Automatic annotation (TrEMBL):
<feature type="domain" description="CHORD">
    <location>
        <begin position="56"/>
        <end position="115"/>
    </location>
</feature>
<dbReference type="Pfam" id="PF04968">
    <property type="entry name" value="CHORD"/>
</dbReference>
<keyword id="KW-0479">Metal-binding</keyword>
<feature type="domain" description="CS">
    <location>
        <begin position="266"/>
        <end position="356"/>
    </location>
</feature>
<dbReference type="InterPro" id="IPR008978">
    <property type="entry name" value="HSP20-like_chaperone"/>
</dbReference>
<protein>
    <submittedName>
        <fullName>Cysteine and histidine-rich domain-containing protein 1</fullName>
    </submittedName>
</protein>
<keyword id="KW-0862">Zinc</keyword>
<dbReference type="InterPro" id="IPR007052">
    <property type="entry name" value="CS_dom"/>
</dbReference>
<dbReference type="InterPro" id="IPR039790">
    <property type="entry name" value="CHRD1"/>
</dbReference>
<feature type="domain" description="CHORD">
    <location>
        <begin position="196"/>
        <end position="255"/>
    </location>
</feature>
<dbReference type="GO" id="GO:0046872">
    <property type="term" value="F:metal ion binding"/>
</dbReference>
<keyword id="KW-0677">Repeat</keyword>
<dbReference type="Pfam" id="PF04969">
    <property type="entry name" value="CS"/>
</dbReference>
<dbReference type="InterPro" id="IPR007051">
    <property type="entry name" value="CHORD_dom"/>
</dbReference>
């Protein structure tokens, strides 16, 4: 068998679907005299479309063509590649873009050329570099050695101090006011209208005969609880503050015209704390602290705060059993105009759950932070 039929790259042709399929007899292919090339040519010839045209594979053409009439103006196609970026569909050759995929497929070509029945090569995919990744296994966490808790009864040492720039002018002003006031008042001289210092007494000094009068005062302390105000010595309760102040004393004695000497005027001050990785900072809010009458001392687990402040030399005194362990040698105190800042260096760089150690675990040898 000798068939003189032109074939291009042994391409198989699409059967024209509009025609009724024909039953072909391929039994002759089993004959040994038919070579492999002839077999392929025969098959291609038999399945070729009825009109003998070839399929063009240029992008966006989709037409069939006759090789005899194929010219350089026959095929209108896109020589570039489709791109999809930010919801846009684009042809790289003409930059025609749209967001609708159907419109993108219907965009006409931008270049004329020959029809081609050879499929264009697929764009080269970037070579995947094989990287030998080193798999690193996480190191096991080291068990932290808990430091033994020192004894809270160890000797206390004074922490070094610094006087801030905001406090210095306040101290100078206070010193000038003390110098300008003449020291004419002593124990033997009582000024007229001097109020009695006993709590709850409202009498004032009117002359020598005031010393013979009986003083009615409260020997207890004021208590404020759940809206009620009363004296601990007589327990007369009221909700009105003015009524509380006007309550007559329940104890009798002599008037006291001078404040007791060598008795500290102790008060409660507000304080708070925060922490960093290596430090615990305590702020005690006491306006115009007096460094020469104040001191902060500590050991590794106990802190003693004694601050004298203001013109009346009020005293804030507090002892704190610390939650964690500190290094007193790396700690310090700064006196400022409105507060005292105590910076404690942690012995271990761990977080504290609280500033104070609870009573039920104070006797433990160590504390888990």
């Amino acid at each position: 068998m000798s068939l003189n039929i032109p074939f291009a790259n042994d391409q198989q042709y699409v059967i024209n679907r509009r025609r009724k399929p024909t039953n072909y007899d391929f039994s002759f292919l089993n004959q040994r005299s038919c070579t492999r090339s002839v077999e392929i040519s025969c098959v291609n010839f038999l399945i070729m479309s009825g009109d003998g045209k070839l399929q063009c594979y240029n992008r966006s053409c989709g037409q069939t063509f006759d090789s005899a009439s194929n010219t350089e103006k026959s095929c209108l196609h896109h020589p570039g590649l489709p791109k999809f970026h930010d919801a846009y569909k684009i042809w790289s050759c003409c930059n025609k873009k749209t967001t609708d995929f159907t419109e993108f497929l219907n965009i006409k070509g931008c270049t004329y050329s020959y029809h081609s029945n050879v499929k264009p090569p697929e764009p080269e995919k970037p070579a995947v570099k094989e990287m030998n990744q080193e798999v690193s296994c996480p190191k096991p966490l080291e068990q932290r050695v808990v430091l033994p808790r020192p004894d809270a009864n160890d000797p206390l040492g004074h922490l070094p101090i610094t006087i801030g720039s905001s406090l210095k002018p306040m101290l100078e002003k206070m010193q000038k006011e003390i110098t300008l006031v003449p020291d004419i008042v002593n124990d033997s001289v009582i000024q007229l209208n001097t109020p009695c210092q006993n709590k709850g007494c409202h009498e004032v000094y009117k002359g020598e005969y005031s010393n013979t009068e009986t003083c009615l005062y409260h020997s207890g302390v004021p208590v404020f609880h759940e809206g009620m105000k009363y004296w601990s010595c007589c327990v007369k309760r009221t909700t009105d503050f003015n009524s509380f102040l006007e309550q007559v004393g329940c104890s009798t004695g002599q008037h006291k015209w001078h404040k007791d000497k060598n008795v500290e005027n102790k008060v409660k001050c507000r304080y708070d704390w925060h922490q960093t990785g290596n430090s615990v900072i305590i702020s005690v809010y006491s306006k115009c602290p007096l460094p020469e009458l104040s001191y902060i001392e500590s050991n590794a687990v106990k802190l003693h705060i004694h601050i004298t402040f203001g013109k009346d030399k009020e005293v804030f005194d507090e002892e704190i059993i610390l939650f964690g362990i500190i290094d007193p040698s790396g700690s310090n105190v700064t006196y400022l105009g409105s507060k005292v800042e105590i910076k404690l260096k942690k012995a271990e760089a761990v977080a504290w759950k609280d500033l104070r150690l609870k009573e039920d675990i104070r006797n433990s040898n160590s504390v888990s932070t």
